[in-house]
Amino acid sequence: MWQKFVVLALLLGWVDKGLSAATLTFAAAEFVPFVSVKDGQPSGAVTDIVRQACREAQIECSFKVQAWKDSKAEVEAGKLDGLFVVSWERDRAQWLSFSLPLLHTEWGYLVRASDTRAYIGLNSLRGYRVGVFGPSSSSEALERVKPVLGLDVQLSQDDLANVRRMLVGELDAVYMNRDVAQSLLLRNGLQGQVRYVMGDNGRNYHLAFSKQADVQLTGPFNRALRRMFKAQEVQQALTSQQLEPARWTSTYQAK
User: Is the pTM of the predicted complex or chain greater than 0.85?
Assistant: First the structure.
């Protein structure tokens, strides 16, 4: 009799392993408007695209909302399969495999609407007090030009606080993501008091997978995502929420 229990336990263990292996686990941090969190789960256009790609690939997907540093550690260690949204960087490519570019965004400067000066180049900001979320890649970008322009770079973990400080004259400008800024201003009724100037060339955001993720799952997922691009489903999901699709996808629109 005990042999039957052993066989049954082994079979159940195999089934459990098979079920867990058929699930892609994603990490996401709240990053409005790209990723919102509702009832502890990610939501918004990007999450909808991920869910749809999973359905088309006939793969179960689960999500874990947590800070970027925690997601990085778990994905790099292979404890989670993927994360979103993330831009391509050389050091990240050592431990991540990137999906097709998903959406395009850019960074620029916010100034008071009453500031009607023409902002043509970075020299327009010489000597400015600039608020930025940090420490972050954004604050690092400002630190690189700080000595040349004589900037007073002031870090904060609160974008809205930076904007409010600018509106009362404690800062001259705020450096932040264009789409994050537009969403933040709209939600707080400040869009008429601020204007966006001098956006950069921008970058694309991707989904990304651990190098240790099962290619038998990531392969079908990425193929489903490509089919969704060709069918314009990704582009429509993004533009319906005022997000810009990755610019390379215009090659599909010409077909």
Answer: no
